Amino acid sequence: MSASETAFHLAPHIFKSYDVRGLYPEELNPAGLACIVRAFAEHTAARRLVVARDVRASGPVLAAAAIAALRALDIECLDIGTVSTDTFYYAVAALDCDGGFTISASHNPGNWNGLNFCRRGSEPVSLSSGLEQVRTRALDLAAQRWQPGPPRAAHHTLDVLDDYADYVLSFIEPKLLRPSRLVAHGNCGLQVKMLERIVRRGHLPLEIHPIYGDPDGSFPVPGGVPNPLLPENQGEFLAAVRQTGADLGVAWDADGDRCFFADETGYFISGYFATAILARSVLTRHPGATVVIDPRNIWATQETIARLGGRTVLSRAGMTIIPQAMREHGAEFAGEMSAHFYFRRNHNRDNGMIPLLLLLELLGRENCRLSDLVRPLREHYFTSGELNFRPADAAALVRQAASIFGDGQQDHIDGLSVAYPDWRFNLRSSNTEPLLRLNVEARSQSALDAGLRRLLELLGSPVGAGH
User: Fold this and answer.
1) Same fold, 3-159 and 163-380
2) Which of 58, 106, 180, 417 is catalytic?
3) Helix ranges, 18-129 (H)
4) What is the pTM of this model?
5) Residue 323 class from Cβ within 10 Å (0-12 exposed, 13-18 middle, 19+ buried)?
6) Looking at domain 382-459, which of 3.40.50.920, 3.40.630.10, 3.30.310.50, 3.40.50.620 is its CATH number?
7) Known catalytic residue: 270?
8) What would the pLDDT profile of 156-197 be if each residue is shown by its tens digit?
Protein backbone atom coordinates (compact mmCIF):
# COMPACT_ATOMS: atom_id res chain seq x y z
CA MET A 1 0.00 0.00 0.00
CA SER A 2 1.03 3.61 -0.51
CA ALA A 3 1.83 5.94 2.37
CA SER A 4 -1.59 7.60 2.00
CA GLU A 5 -3.25 4.22 2.43
CA THR A 6 -1.29 3.11 5.50
CA ALA A 7 -1.45 6.43 7.37
CA PHE A 8 -4.40 6.77 9.75
CA HIS A 9 -6.58 9.17 7.80
CA LEU A 10 -9.85 9.40 9.71
CA ALA A 11 -11.61 12.77 9.88
CA PRO A 12 -14.29 13.13 12.62
CA HIS A 13 -16.64 15.08 10.33
CA ILE A 14 -17.09 12.13 7.94
CA PHE A 15 -19.50 10.55 10.45
CA LYS A 16 -22.89 11.80 9.21
CA SER A 17 -26.39 11.36 10.61
CA TYR A 18 -26.95 8.04 8.82
CA ASP A 19 -23.58 6.85 7.56
CA VAL A 20 -19.91 7.62 7.00
CA ARG A 21 -18.82 9.59 3.91
CA GLY A 22 -15.52 11.27 3.12
CA LEU A 23 -12.89 11.96 0.49
CA TYR A 24 -10.61 9.03 -0.33
CA PRO A 25 -7.85 8.83 0.83
CA GLU A 26 -7.57 12.29 2.45
CA GLU A 27 -10.38 11.76 5.00
CA LEU A 28 -10.93 8.00 4.87
CA ASN A 29 -8.38 5.36 3.89
CA PRO A 30 -7.82 1.63 4.57
CA ALA A 31 -6.12 2.12 7.94
CA GLY A 32 -8.83 4.48 9.17
CA LEU A 33 -11.62 2.31 7.83
CA ALA A 34 -10.22 -0.72 9.65
CA CYS A 35 -10.57 1.22 12.91
CA ILE A 36 -14.21 2.06 12.12
CA VAL A 37 -14.97 -1.56 11.28
CA ARG A 38 -13.45 -2.78 14.54
CA ALA A 39 -15.44 -0.17 16.49
CA PHE A 40 -18.67 -1.29 14.81
CA ALA A 41 -17.95 -4.96 15.49
CA GLU A 42 -17.26 -4.22 19.16
CA HIS A 43 -20.39 -2.08 19.51
CA THR A 44 -22.62 -4.83 18.07
CA ALA A 45 -20.72 -7.75 19.67
CA ALA A 46 -20.75 -9.30 16.20
CA ARG A 47 -19.41 -12.73 15.37
CA ARG A 48 -20.55 -12.86 11.72
CA LEU A 49 -20.92 -9.85 9.41
CA VAL A 50 -21.86 -9.16 5.78
CA VAL A 51 -19.36 -7.07 3.81
CA ALA A 52 -20.35 -5.37 0.53
CA ARG A 53 -19.21 -2.47 -1.63
CA ASP A 54 -20.41 -0.29 -4.49
CA VAL A 55 -18.64 0.33 -7.81
CA ARG A 56 -16.12 2.95 -6.67
CA ALA A 57 -12.49 2.37 -7.60
CA SER A 58 -11.43 2.55 -3.94
CA GLY A 59 -13.91 -0.17 -2.98
CA PRO A 60 -11.67 -3.24 -3.40
CA VAL A 61 -8.79 -1.93 -1.28
CA LEU A 62 -11.18 -0.66 1.42
CA ALA A 63 -13.08 -3.96 1.44
CA ALA A 64 -9.81 -5.88 1.78
CA ALA A 65 -8.87 -3.71 4.77
CA ALA A 66 -12.28 -4.24 6.36
CA ILE A 67 -12.15 -8.01 5.89
CA ALA A 68 -8.61 -8.20 7.27
CA ALA A 69 -9.70 -6.25 10.35
CA LEU A 70 -12.71 -8.49 10.98
CA ARG A 71 -10.82 -11.73 10.48
CA ALA A 72 -8.11 -10.57 12.88
CA LEU A 73 -10.87 -10.02 15.46
CA ASP A 74 -12.13 -13.60 14.88
CA ILE A 75 -15.26 -12.35 13.12
CA GLU A 76 -16.54 -14.42 10.20
CA CYS A 77 -16.97 -12.45 6.96
CA LEU A 78 -19.75 -13.03 4.44
CA ASP A 79 -18.37 -11.17 1.43
CA ILE A 80 -21.13 -10.51 -1.14
CA GLY A 81 -18.91 -8.43 -3.39
CA THR A 82 -19.98 -5.44 -5.48
CA VAL A 83 -23.73 -4.92 -5.11
CA SER A 84 -26.33 -2.18 -4.88
CA THR A 85 -27.27 -0.93 -1.42
CA ASP A 86 -30.73 -2.48 -1.60
CA THR A 87 -29.14 -5.86 -2.41
CA PHE A 88 -26.92 -5.38 0.65
CA TYR A 89 -29.95 -4.72 2.85
CA TYR A 90 -31.57 -7.88 1.51
CA ALA A 91 -28.47 -9.95 2.25
CA VAL A 92 -28.18 -8.75 5.84
CA ALA A 93 -31.82 -9.68 6.45
CA ALA A 94 -31.68 -13.00 4.57
CA LEU A 95 -28.39 -14.39 5.87
CA ASP A 96 -27.68 -15.64 9.38
CA CYS A 97 -25.49 -12.76 10.53
CA ASP A 98 -25.20 -10.10 13.20
CA GLY A 99 -25.34 -7.24 10.71
CA GLY A 100 -22.96 -5.79 8.19
CA PHE A 101 -21.82 -2.81 6.19
CA THR A 102 -21.50 -1.72 2.60
CA ILE A 103 -18.58 0.43 1.52
CA SER A 104 -20.32 3.20 -0.40
CA ALA A 105 -20.73 6.95 -0.65
CA SER A 106 -24.20 6.86 -2.22
CA HIS A 107 -24.50 9.50 -4.95
CA ASN A 108 -21.31 11.39 -4.08
CA PRO A 109 -18.57 11.76 -6.74
CA GLY A 110 -16.13 8.94 -7.39
CA ASN A 111 -13.35 10.33 -5.17
CA TRP A 112 -15.56 9.78 -2.11
CA ASN A 113 -16.25 6.61 -0.15
CA GLY A 114 -17.80 5.61 3.15
CA LEU A 115 -19.76 3.06 5.14
CA ASN A 116 -23.45 2.27 5.63
CA PHE A 117 -24.16 -0.03 8.61
CA CYS A 118 -26.94 -2.46 9.55
CA ARG A 119 -27.63 -4.61 12.55
CA ARG A 120 -29.19 -8.07 12.38
CA GLY A 121 -32.41 -8.07 10.36
CA SER A 122 -31.13 -5.08 8.36
CA GLU A 123 -31.96 -2.64 11.16
CA PRO A 124 -30.34 0.71 10.31
CA VAL A 125 -27.60 2.30 12.40
CA SER A 126 -27.45 6.10 12.77
CA LEU A 127 -25.72 8.60 15.04
CA SER A 128 -28.62 8.31 17.47
CA SER A 129 -28.62 4.49 17.45
CA GLY A 130 -24.96 3.57 17.78
CA LEU A 131 -22.91 5.40 15.15
CA GLU A 132 -21.87 8.09 17.65
CA GLN A 133 -20.33 5.43 19.89
CA VAL A 134 -18.66 3.85 16.86
CA ARG A 135 -17.16 7.24 15.96
CA THR A 136 -15.74 7.78 19.44
CA ARG A 137 -14.16 4.33 19.57
CA ALA A 138 -12.85 4.49 15.98
CA LEU A 139 -11.12 7.83 16.55
CA ASP A 140 -9.54 6.43 19.71
CA LEU A 141 -8.28 3.36 17.81
CA ALA A 142 -6.86 5.58 15.07
CA ALA A 143 -5.08 7.69 17.66
CA GLN A 144 -3.56 4.46 19.03
CA ARG A 145 -2.59 3.52 15.45
CA TRP A 146 -4.29 0.13 15.79
CA GLN A 147 -3.54 -2.39 13.08
CA PRO A 148 -5.07 -5.85 12.63
CA GLY A 149 -3.06 -8.96 13.37
CA PRO A 150 -3.15 -12.27 11.48
CA PRO A 151 -6.51 -13.73 10.35
CA ARG A 152 -8.35 -15.97 12.81
CA ALA A 153 -11.83 -16.31 11.25
CA ALA A 154 -13.19 -17.54 7.92
CA HIS A 155 -13.87 -15.42 4.84
CA HIS A 156 -16.72 -16.63 2.60
CA THR A 157 -17.53 -15.17 -0.81
CA LEU A 158 -21.22 -15.40 -1.65
CA ASP A 159 -23.26 -14.60 -4.79
CA VAL A 160 -26.70 -13.40 -3.68
CA LEU A 161 -27.84 -11.83 -6.96
CA ASP A 162 -30.16 -14.58 -8.19
CA ASP A 163 -31.72 -14.93 -4.75
CA TYR A 164 -32.23 -11.17 -4.63
CA ALA A 165 -33.82 -11.17 -8.09
CA ASP A 166 -36.27 -13.86 -6.99
CA TYR A 167 -36.98 -11.93 -3.82
CA VAL A 168 -37.99 -8.69 -5.52
CA LEU A 169 -40.04 -10.64 -8.10
CA SER A 170 -42.06 -12.07 -5.19
CA PHE A 171 -43.53 -8.60 -4.62
CA ILE A 172 -45.55 -8.72 -7.87
CA GLU A 173 -47.63 -10.98 -10.10
CA PRO A 174 -45.44 -11.09 -13.22
CA LYS A 175 -48.33 -12.15 -15.45
CA LEU A 176 -49.92 -8.73 -14.94
CA LEU A 177 -47.05 -6.92 -16.65
CA ARG A 178 -47.69 -5.74 -20.19
CA PRO A 179 -45.00 -5.77 -22.89
CA SER A 180 -43.18 -2.48 -22.27
CA ARG A 181 -40.14 -0.56 -23.39
CA LEU A 182 -38.06 1.04 -20.60
CA VAL A 183 -35.22 3.52 -20.63
CA ALA A 184 -33.05 2.62 -17.63
CA HIS A 185 -30.52 5.21 -16.41
CA GLY A 186 -28.07 3.47 -14.08
CA ASN A 187 -25.75 6.39 -13.28
CA CYS A 188 -22.91 3.89 -13.78
CA GLY A 189 -24.06 1.79 -10.83
CA LEU A 190 -25.32 -1.79 -10.80
CA GLN A 191 -29.07 -1.46 -11.15
CA VAL A 192 -29.35 -1.74 -14.94
CA LYS A 193 -27.47 -5.06 -14.86
CA MET A 194 -29.64 -6.14 -11.94
CA LEU A 195 -32.81 -5.23 -13.83
CA GLU A 196 -31.65 -7.26 -16.82
CA ARG A 197 -31.10 -10.25 -14.52
CA ILE A 198 -34.58 -9.82 -13.00
CA VAL A 199 -36.14 -9.64 -16.46
CA ARG A 200 -34.44 -12.89 -17.44
CA ARG A 201 -35.32 -14.76 -14.24
CA GLY A 202 -38.91 -13.55 -14.20
CA HIS A 203 -39.42 -13.89 -17.97
CA LEU A 204 -40.79 -10.36 -17.88
CA PRO A 205 -42.01 -8.83 -21.18
CA LEU A 206 -39.69 -5.83 -20.90
CA GLU A 207 -37.34 -4.29 -23.45
CA ILE A 208 -34.54 -2.37 -21.72
CA HIS A 209 -32.75 0.60 -23.30
CA PRO A 210 -29.82 1.38 -20.96
CA ILE A 211 -28.18 4.74 -20.35
CA TYR A 212 -24.96 4.71 -18.31
CA GLY A 213 -25.80 1.11 -17.53
CA ASP A 214 -22.25 -0.24 -17.29
CA PRO A 215 -20.77 -0.11 -13.78
CA ASP A 216 -17.99 2.49 -13.64
CA GLY A 217 -16.78 3.98 -10.37
CA SER A 218 -15.34 7.03 -12.09
CA PHE A 219 -18.96 8.05 -12.87
CA PRO A 220 -18.61 9.54 -16.37
CA VAL A 221 -22.07 11.09 -16.17
CA PRO A 222 -22.71 14.78 -16.85
CA GLY A 223 -21.14 16.70 -13.97
CA GLY A 224 -19.54 13.57 -12.54
CA VAL A 225 -22.14 13.27 -9.77
CA PRO A 226 -24.36 10.15 -10.09
CA ASN A 227 -27.50 11.78 -8.70
CA PRO A 228 -30.78 11.70 -10.71
CA LEU A 229 -31.98 14.90 -9.04
CA LEU A 230 -29.37 17.05 -10.76
CA PRO A 231 -30.87 18.78 -13.83
CA GLU A 232 -27.74 18.09 -15.89
CA ASN A 233 -28.28 14.40 -15.20
CA GLN A 234 -31.85 14.38 -16.54
CA GLY A 235 -31.65 15.82 -20.06
CA GLU A 236 -30.20 12.82 -21.86
CA PHE A 237 -32.45 10.48 -19.88
CA LEU A 238 -35.68 12.31 -20.70
CA ALA A 239 -34.68 12.76 -24.34
CA ALA A 240 -34.08 9.00 -24.63
CA VAL A 241 -37.54 8.27 -23.22
CA ARG A 242 -39.11 10.42 -25.93
CA GLN A 243 -36.83 9.32 -28.76
CA THR A 244 -37.22 5.58 -28.14
CA GLY A 245 -40.98 5.74 -27.66
CA ALA A 246 -40.51 4.18 -24.24
CA ASP A 247 -43.46 3.43 -21.99
CA LEU A 248 -41.53 4.90 -19.06
CA GLY A 249 -38.07 5.70 -17.79
CA VAL A 250 -36.39 4.78 -14.52
CA ALA A 251 -33.25 6.35 -13.05
CA TRP A 252 -31.27 5.28 -10.00
CA ASP A 253 -28.52 6.93 -8.01
CA ALA A 254 -25.13 5.20 -8.08
CA ASP A 255 -25.76 2.88 -5.14
CA GLY A 256 -29.27 2.06 -6.31
CA ASP A 257 -31.38 2.69 -3.21
CA ARG A 258 -33.35 5.58 -4.74
CA CYS A 259 -35.30 5.45 -8.00
CA PHE A 260 -37.03 8.13 -10.04
CA PHE A 261 -39.45 7.75 -12.92
CA ALA A 262 -40.31 9.55 -16.13
CA ASP A 263 -43.60 9.02 -17.94
CA GLU A 264 -43.86 8.27 -21.65
CA THR A 265 -44.00 11.99 -22.50
CA GLY A 266 -40.59 12.57 -20.90
CA TYR A 267 -41.95 14.24 -17.75
CA PHE A 268 -39.65 13.67 -14.75
CA ILE A 269 -41.74 12.50 -11.78
CA SER A 270 -40.73 13.70 -8.33
CA GLY A 271 -40.43 11.28 -5.44
CA TYR A 272 -43.41 13.16 -3.99
CA PHE A 273 -45.75 12.26 -6.85
CA ALA A 274 -44.24 8.78 -7.13
CA THR A 275 -45.16 8.13 -3.49
CA ALA A 276 -48.80 8.93 -4.24
CA ILE A 277 -48.78 6.63 -7.28
CA LEU A 278 -47.04 3.74 -5.49
CA ALA A 279 -49.47 4.07 -2.57
CA ARG A 280 -52.17 3.15 -5.09
CA SER A 281 -50.42 -0.18 -5.66
CA VAL A 282 -49.83 -0.85 -1.96
CA LEU A 283 -53.42 -0.02 -0.98
CA THR A 284 -54.75 -2.39 -3.64
CA ARG A 285 -53.08 -5.24 -1.76
CA HIS A 286 -53.54 -3.82 1.73
CA PRO A 287 -56.83 -1.86 1.97
CA GLY A 288 -56.80 0.75 4.71
CA ALA A 289 -53.03 0.52 5.18
CA THR A 290 -50.93 3.19 6.84
CA VAL A 291 -48.36 5.06 4.75
CA VAL A 292 -45.55 7.11 6.29
CA ILE A 293 -44.53 10.30 4.47
CA ASP A 294 -42.12 13.11 5.24
CA PRO A 295 -43.41 16.69 5.75
CA ARG A 296 -41.59 18.42 2.89
CA ASN A 297 -44.58 18.14 0.50
CA ILE A 298 -47.73 16.42 1.75
CA TRP A 299 -50.99 17.45 0.09
CA ALA A 300 -50.81 15.19 -2.96
CA THR A 301 -49.92 12.12 -0.92
CA GLN A 302 -52.29 12.80 1.98
CA GLU A 303 -55.27 13.49 -0.24
CA THR A 304 -54.58 10.66 -2.70
CA ILE A 305 -54.12 8.11 0.07
CA ALA A 306 -57.25 9.32 1.88
CA ARG A 307 -59.30 8.92 -1.32
CA LEU A 308 -57.99 5.36 -1.63
CA GLY A 309 -59.03 4.56 1.95
CA GLY A 310 -55.57 4.67 3.50
CA ARG A 311 -54.04 6.63 6.34
CA THR A 312 -50.94 8.81 6.38
CA VAL A 313 -48.49 9.47 9.21
CA LEU A 314 -45.95 12.31 9.06
CA SER A 315 -42.38 11.53 10.09
CA ARG A 316 -39.08 13.32 10.00
CA ALA A 317 -37.17 12.49 6.84
CA GLY A 318 -34.22 10.11 6.91
CA MET A 319 -33.31 6.59 5.91
CA THR A 320 -32.81 5.52 9.53
CA ILE A 321 -35.75 7.52 10.91
CA ILE A 322 -38.49 6.38 8.53
CA PRO A 323 -38.11 2.63 9.36
CA GLN A 324 -38.61 3.39 13.04
CA ALA A 325 -41.79 5.36 12.27
CA MET A 326 -43.03 2.46 10.14
CA ARG A 327 -42.54 0.03 12.99
CA GLU A 328 -44.24 2.34 15.49
CA HIS A 329 -47.33 2.81 13.29
CA GLY A 330 -47.50 -0.59 11.60
CA ALA A 331 -47.11 1.02 8.16
CA GLU A 332 -47.02 -1.04 4.97
CA PHE A 333 -45.20 1.56 2.93
CA ALA A 334 -43.31 4.83 3.20
CA GLY A 335 -42.14 7.31 0.62
CA GLU A 336 -39.88 10.34 0.79
CA MET A 337 -39.64 13.22 -1.63
CA SER A 338 -35.99 12.16 -2.12
CA ALA A 339 -37.32 8.95 -3.77
CA HIS A 340 -36.44 6.56 -1.00
CA PHE A 341 -39.30 4.04 -0.91
CA TYR A 342 -39.72 1.66 2.05
CA PHE A 343 -41.78 -1.52 2.44
CA ARG A 344 -42.82 -3.45 5.55
CA ARG A 345 -42.14 -6.75 3.75
CA ASN A 346 -38.64 -5.46 3.01
CA HIS A 347 -37.86 -5.15 6.73
CA ASN A 348 -39.01 -1.51 6.58
CA ARG A 349 -35.94 -0.65 4.46
CA ASP A 350 -35.73 1.35 1.27
CA ASN A 351 -35.36 -0.37 -2.08
CA GLY A 352 -34.75 0.87 -5.62
CA MET A 353 -36.08 -2.10 -7.59
CA ILE A 354 -39.38 -3.02 -5.88
CA PRO A 355 -40.99 0.36 -6.75
CA LEU A 356 -40.29 -0.16 -10.45
CA LEU A 357 -41.83 -3.64 -10.43
CA LEU A 358 -44.88 -2.44 -8.50
CA LEU A 359 -45.35 0.44 -10.93
CA LEU A 360 -45.16 -1.85 -13.97
CA GLU A 361 -47.67 -4.19 -12.35
CA LEU A 362 -49.99 -1.27 -11.56
CA LEU A 363 -49.90 -0.04 -15.17
CA GLY A 364 -50.77 -3.53 -16.35
CA ARG A 365 -53.54 -4.04 -13.82
CA GLU A 366 -55.18 -0.71 -14.61
CA ASN A 367 -54.35 -0.86 -18.35
CA CYS A 368 -53.21 2.75 -18.38
CA ARG A 369 -50.20 4.86 -19.24
CA LEU A 370 -48.01 6.37 -16.56
CA SER A 371 -49.01 9.87 -17.69
CA ASP A 372 -52.63 8.97 -16.87
CA LEU A 373 -51.64 8.52 -13.22
CA VAL A 374 -49.41 11.59 -13.15
CA ARG A 375 -51.78 14.04 -14.86
CA PRO A 376 -54.26 14.52 -11.97
CA LEU A 377 -51.36 15.25 -9.64
CA ARG A 378 -49.80 17.76 -12.02
CA GLU A 379 -53.15 19.49 -12.49
CA HIS A 380 -53.91 19.91 -8.78
CA TYR A 381 -50.56 20.21 -6.99
CA PHE A 382 -47.82 22.68 -7.88
CA THR A 383 -44.35 22.39 -6.36
CA SER A 384 -41.08 24.30 -6.30
CA GLY A 385 -38.82 21.28 -6.11
CA GLU A 386 -36.22 21.23 -3.36
CA LEU A 387 -34.20 24.45 -3.14
CA ASN A 388 -30.98 24.59 -1.11
CA PHE A 389 -29.44 27.52 0.75
CA ARG A 390 -26.17 27.99 2.62
CA PRO A 391 -26.88 30.65 5.29
CA ALA A 392 -24.37 31.74 7.92
CA ASP A 393 -26.84 30.86 10.68
CA ALA A 394 -29.52 28.38 9.59
CA ALA A 395 -31.24 28.17 12.98
CA ALA A 396 -31.64 31.93 13.18
CA LEU A 397 -33.08 32.05 9.69
CA VAL A 398 -35.65 29.35 10.54
CA ARG A 399 -36.68 31.30 13.64
CA GLN A 400 -37.06 34.43 11.53
CA ALA A 401 -39.24 32.54 9.04
CA ALA A 402 -41.42 31.26 11.89
CA SER A 403 -41.97 34.85 13.02
CA ILE A 404 -42.63 36.30 9.56
CA PHE A 405 -45.09 33.51 8.69
CA GLY A 406 -46.63 33.38 12.15
CA ASP A 407 -50.15 33.79 10.76
CA GLY A 408 -49.98 30.34 9.10
CA GLN A 409 -50.59 26.93 10.65
CA GLN A 410 -47.20 25.77 11.90
CA ASP A 411 -45.67 22.46 12.92
CA HIS A 412 -42.14 21.37 13.75
CA ILE A 413 -42.17 17.66 12.89
CA ASP A 414 -39.10 18.20 10.72
CA GLY A 415 -37.83 21.76 10.66
CA LEU A 416 -40.53 24.39 10.16
CA SER A 417 -43.70 23.72 8.17
CA VAL A 418 -46.22 26.50 7.58
CA ALA A 419 -49.57 25.98 5.84
CA TYR A 420 -52.08 28.43 4.39
CA PRO A 421 -55.30 27.47 2.56
CA ASP A 422 -53.70 27.66 -0.90
CA TRP A 423 -49.96 27.09 -0.24
CA ARG A 424 -47.52 25.71 2.29
CA PHE A 425 -43.79 25.29 2.80
CA ASN A 426 -41.25 23.27 4.74
CA LEU A 427 -37.86 24.65 5.75
CA ARG A 428 -35.38 22.25 7.32
CA SER A 429 -31.67 21.69 7.83
CA SER A 430 -30.20 18.85 5.80
CA ASN A 431 -29.21 15.68 7.66
CA THR A 432 -26.37 14.98 5.23
CA GLU A 433 -25.00 18.36 4.11
CA PRO A 434 -24.51 21.87 5.62
CA LEU A 435 -27.57 23.22 3.84
CA LEU A 436 -31.00 24.64 4.57
CA ARG A 437 -33.61 23.00 2.34
CA LEU A 438 -36.88 24.60 1.19
CA ASN A 439 -39.91 22.94 -0.38
CA VAL A 440 -43.01 24.87 -1.38
CA GLU A 441 -46.32 23.49 -2.67
CA ALA A 442 -49.59 25.16 -3.67
CA ARG A 443 -53.05 24.67 -5.12
CA SER A 444 -52.20 26.83 -8.15
CA GLN A 445 -49.17 28.11 -10.01
CA SER A 446 -49.95 31.68 -9.03
CA ALA A 447 -50.12 30.78 -5.33
CA LEU A 448 -46.84 28.90 -5.65
CA ASP A 449 -45.14 31.85 -7.34
CA ALA A 450 -46.40 34.33 -4.76
CA GLY A 451 -45.35 32.19 -1.79
CA LEU A 452 -41.96 31.44 -3.29
CA ARG A 453 -41.30 35.14 -3.90
CA ARG A 454 -41.94 35.92 -0.25
CA LEU A 455 -39.61 33.15 0.90
CA LEU A 456 -36.78 34.09 -1.47
CA GLU A 457 -36.91 37.66 -0.15
CA LEU A 458 -35.92 36.16 3.20
CA LEU A 459 -33.62 33.32 2.12
CA GLY A 460 -31.81 34.79 -0.87
CA SER A 461 -30.68 32.76 -3.88
CA PRO A 462 -30.61 28.94 -3.79
CA VAL A 463 -27.35 27.07 -4.37
CA GLY A 464 -28.45 23.87 -6.15
CA ALA A 465 -30.18 20.48 -5.97
CA GLY A 466 -29.80 18.12 -3.04
CA HIS A 467 -30.46 14.59 -1.82
Assistant:
1) yes
2) 106
3) 30-44, 59-72, 85-94
4) 0.96
5) buried
6) 3.30.310.50
7) no
8) 999 999 999 999 999 999 999 999 999 999 999 999 999 999
